[in-house]
Amino acid sequence: MALGTLDRTPPPFFRQGPSSLTKLSFCSALAVFLMVADARFTITQPIRATVAAVLYPLQRALLVPVEAIGDSREYLGGLSRAVAGEQAARSELALQAERAQRADQLQQENARLRALLDLRPTLSVHSQAAEVLYEAADPYSRKVIIDRGVANNVLPGSPVINEAGVLGQVTRVYLQSAEVTLLTDRDAAIPVLNSRTGARSAAFGGATGGVGLLEMRFMAGNADVQVGDVLTTSGVDGVYPPGLRVASVAKIDRKIDTGFARIVLAPTASSDGVRHVLVLEPTGVRLPPRPEAAASEAAAPSKPGGKKGGRK
Questions:
Q1: pLDDT along the chain (312 residues), means of 10
Q2: Are the C-beta atoms of 250 and 265 separated by less than 8 Å?
Q3: Which segments of 136-289 are extended strands (E)?
Q4: By CB atoms within 10 Å of each CB, which of 124, 192, 283, 305 scores lowest?
Q5: How far is CA 215 from CA 11, 189, 198, in A?
Q6: Do residues 156 and 173 make contact, with C-beta atoms less than 8 angstroms apart?
């Protein structure tokens, strides 16, 4: 069949009614009329409300997945922010705990230093502050090393004290440091005075049956000593100034068979954790020479002159 014989006219259904231009004009006029009527008389408001009420459940149903995704993102973001905030709070808490501990240490150190400064005016001898560097390596002795030595005019035998009482005595002096033997060392000894009775005695370190204790030896079994008596330095040895607290009586064992009493003392100044101390000048440095020594010194320069005069 030839192409020219085909009928290209539209079917009768599409040829019925007004033309397309008429339809366009009618629809445009109707749209303008409805807009003006809606704006002036709101005739479509009930229809719009009805349609909105009918479509609201469908709208909510369609928004459920969107809201769920948004809530999930917000939850995950909030959770990550909460975890980050917790970590930051823990770090800040650890930092605050460290600062608080450091503040407590500084406060305790300040209290000890104030106690040392309050103690210094009551001393009649020269004193200088020192810091404990470390403990001696010998496990069988109780000794510490301080940061003052010959360069600071520290003398052998100088007493070492803190705010609580006597700690020990300088036994070796180096250029920039010194070795301090504590009272609790087994080779340490110090003359003491009973504050209650006024009786003098000596306290020795290395008490048997306890670590860090002292002992009063060669005391009669009926000696007037009671638990709780405070012992201070007597000041008669030419080393320690009088009145410094040394120890208190902790235990008394009166042995009838030997005639002596075993008296255990607890030192008032604990050497554990001590950091700042005072190094005192021995009291013998400021005392006048003994008569025997003064006489020998006075006679020493006259002997050569006398011999020379005899020869002449």
A1: 60 63 87 81 76 84 85 86 87 81 76 69 78 84 91 91 90 93 90 90 80 84 88 87 90 78 89 86 74 64 46 38
A2: yes
A3: 143-146, 159-161, 166-173, 178-182, 189-194, 200-205, 214-220, 230-233, 245-254, 260-267, 276-280
A4: 305
A5: 134, 9, 18
A6: yes
Q: Hey, what are 258's tokens?
A: 């030997």
Give the E-state strand segments of the chain in sequence order. 127-135, 143-146, 159-161, 166-173, 178-182, 189-194, 200-205, 214-220, 230-233, 245-254, 260-267, 276-280
The answer to whether the predicted template modeling score (pTM) of the entire model surpasses 0.85 is no
- How is residue 78 written in tokens? 């909030």
Regarding beta strands 189-194 and 178-182, do their DSSP bridges make them parallel or antiparallel, or are they unpaired? unpaired
Q: Which amino acid is at 113?
A: L
At residue 10, what are phi and psi to the nearest 5 degrees? -70, 160
The answer to whether 284 and 238 are in contact (CB under 8 A) is yes
Q: Token digits for 200?
A: 């003098």
Which amino acid makes up residue 261? A
CA distance 309 to 312: 5
- 248 vs 228: CA distance, rounded Å: 6
Residue 192 is predicted with a pLDDT of 93
